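Tokens help. Our protein:
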Amino acid sequence: MGIKDLAEQAQTEITSLTVDEALPKYGDGDLVFVDVRDIREVEKSGTIKGAKLATRGMIEFWFDPESPYFRDIYGDPDKTYVLFCNAEWRSALCAKSLQDMGIRNVAQLFGGLPAWRDAGGPTEEKPRK
């Protein structure tokens, strides 16, 4: 099974939010947008305004309270963590992995950052520091 098949399978097992569902809730405090792309992609193309970064390689470590790399921002059971990438493959795999770990308050943003931009969602640049 290749990566495309894995991502498609994950899509059937996770929650997805469309931009039309997510955008009206943006800024209400219930959703935390999480960019799972590599930092170089974020620096090149920006991200959703206020999004947190949890790269594909570290996301499980940062979400797991038992991990030495756990980050408090990802441990709020009252928030929904909306994962996104440039399409849906990485965010789907991340959401599936987190669900497999027992984390239920995750979803992916269907269409990723391009769909968000197309809908006029707020974005920001993240230049290299």
User: Anything to note?
Assistant: Helices lie at 3-11, 19-22, 39-45, 59-63, 89-100, 112-118. The beta strands are 16-17, 31-35, 47-48, 52-53, 80-84, 106-109, 123-124.
